[in-house]
Task: structure prediction
Amino acid sequence: MRRSVSVTIVVATALAMVGCAAPHEQAKEQSQARWNNTRSNVLVQGGEGQFAAGDLDGAATSAREALALSPDLVCARMLMARVHIEKGSYTAAMDELARVEALDAADDRVPYLQAVVHERRGRYDDALALYEKARTLAPGNGAYVLAAAEVLVALGRADDALVLVESNLSALDDAGGAALLAGDLAMVVGRADKAVEYYRAARALEPTDPGLLEKLAKARFFAGDHKHAARLLAELAVLAPYDKSPWVHTMLGDALLATGQIRQARDAYYTVTQLDADEPRAWVNLATADLACRDFARAALAARRAMELDPSSAEATVLHGYALLAQGKADQAEQVLLQASSDHPADPMLQCLLGRSYSAMGRLDEAQDRYRATLALDPDNRIAQEMMSRLTP
Result:
């Protein structure tokens, strides 16, 4: 009997020990899981720093170590997916993103990164659909709007891109960046007037940014607002490196000429000839401004330099011939224009100027022939019409 009682006690004690062990092991496992999760999150944080620094291999190692501890850790798989994308391992990236999607179908980063993969592969239609899906999951994320707009541009749908950005301006966190993109899109679709407003808004936020000054100046110019364009370009022309950029001074000269500021325009064009002395167009522009200033001798010199740089330039020849005629050098003008009219028989201006050269030399029959040739090419040429009426009895 005593032995039976002893056995019962031993069995009961053993059962009690088993009952206590189960909760203990469970608590131990939970503690280990918490530790693994904490450790893996720390690893991912380190991996994010490595990724930001461009250490893709280090970031991949951190992500793999984190996943070894917590296979379902979304942030670790997202990090690994981004590493694969940057390395060009697009299939591996899509596999990681599929795992994340299985864990959390509402994660808007998944379709966004899937779209990035398709965009880099040149599959713009697929990319656009996924960017739109990301926007649906996170309507307030401006990055998705901008990404979709860029794909629309790549698809040749800049108008749609502009509409998309304009309709989401209030939702975009980066107001300056959004206005800048809207301005760029407006320029692409030929709406310089609209671009002006967006660039002005962007510049109000970054008034010292020379890049925004450049964009606003160009938009003003192409919108036909030459007065304000000239003022902005003058500001730009004294800033490095723009002060050494021929296009800035050329556009400034064009804007000044359009507003009747011919002497200032000539100065701007002259600057271009000093910056890029071998560019024929620079000398053509200078000759044009010299003629507008009635400085015919300088105009002839500038036009002749343009002809030396580009003997085939009919425009330079016309300017040279006109400058010679204005100085009373009709015989020299004839020599310049005759060869050019042979090389460019369809240029009415050359024919007309040659006619004026003959008229100045008293060779009226030859002058009439050239005026007739001019009118055959350009029936509405008023100069040729007027000169013909003077010569016709």
Q: What stands out?
A: The longest helix spans residues 2-52. The radius of gyration is 38 Å.
